[in-house]
Amino acid sequence: MAKIGKRLKAAYEAIDTKALLEVSEAVAKVKANASAKFDETVEVAISLGVDPRHADQMVRGVVELPHGTGKTVRVAVFAKGDKATEAEQAGADIVGAEDLMKTVQDGTIDFDRCIATPDMMGVVGRLGKILGPRGLMPNPKLGTVTMDVAGAVRAAKAGQVQFRVEKAGIVHAGVGKASFTEEALVDNVKAVFDALNKAKPSGAKGTYFKKASLSSTMGPGVKVNVQSALG
Fold it and tell me: Cα(146)–Cα(64) distance, rounded to whole angstroms?
C-alpha cells in the first residue's frame, strides 16, 4: 500500500470527505488545502446519468470559462493563405498545412488545441490516429473546424475548455488555478455545469447530474452539492 505523505495526510484530516458541500464551501476547502509548491489546477469531476456507448447519450461540447483556466494554451492552426495570416495575427502559436502535417507525423505535437479550416480537413484527416486519441482532432461541433480561425484562436487562448464524457459517464474539467479567488472559481464551476446542462442528450433518462466533486492537483477531493452549482 502506498504511503501517504505528511502534507496529503494533513489535507485529508482537514476535511470531511463524506460531507456534501455547497459549491462555495467546496471551493474554499480546496483552496485551503492546495499547499503544493506550485499553483495547483482545480478540477471538477461530474458523474452523469448517461451511457456514452449509445450515440444518443454522448455528452460533448465546449465551455467559455468567465475567468479563464490560468493556463497558457498553445494553439496550432491548419490553414493556408489569408486564413493562415488571420490565425497568426490572432495569436496562433503554430500555423501550417502539409508541412505541419509532416511535423505531427514525425512525432512533434507541441500544441494543446488544434484548429483547421474546412478545406484543410483532407490533410488533417490523415492525422486522425495521432490526434484523435489525444483529444486534438478538429471537430466542427466544437468550433475547431471553422473559417473563423481568428475567433477560434482567441477563444482557445481566453480559456475555452472542451469536455467529453468518459466511458464511466464522468466528465472532468479544469476550472482554474488554486491562486484564483473563490468567486472566480465558483463562477467557472457554475459555467461548466451550465454548459453540461445545455448539452444534455436526448437519450438521457432519470437523474442527469448524479454527483460531483472538486479537487486540486495534489489535494483530496470534496463532494459538491450539485444543486448549488446549478444556480
Answer: 17
Cβ-contact 68, 76 below 8 angstroms: no
CATH architecture of 75-158: 3-Layer(aba) Sandwich (3.40)
Are the C-beta atoms of residues 149 and 79 closer than 8 Å to each other?
A: yes
Q: What is the pLDDT of residues 70-111, one digit of tens each?
A: 999 999 999 999 999 999 999 999 999 999 999 999 999 999
Q: Which amino acid is at 192?
A: V
Q: Is 226 helix (H, G, I), strand (E, B) or coil?
A: helix
Q: For residue 83, which amino acid is it?
A: K
CB of 186 within 8 A of CB of 24? yes
Evaluate whether 38 touches 177 at the Cβ level (below 8 Å).
no
CATH 3.40.640.10 is right for the domain spanning 6-69+160-229: no
Collapse the DSSP code of 115 into the 3-class scheme (helix H, G, I; strand E, B; otherwise coil) and give the result.
strand
Q: Give the angle subtended at the CA of 26 by the CAs of 224 and 31, to the nearest 5°.
A: 145
Please state the pTM of the whole predicted model: 0.83
3-state SS assignment for residue 120: helix
Q: What's at 3, amino acid-wise?
A: K
Q: How many helices (H) and strands (E) does the chain have?
A: 9, 10
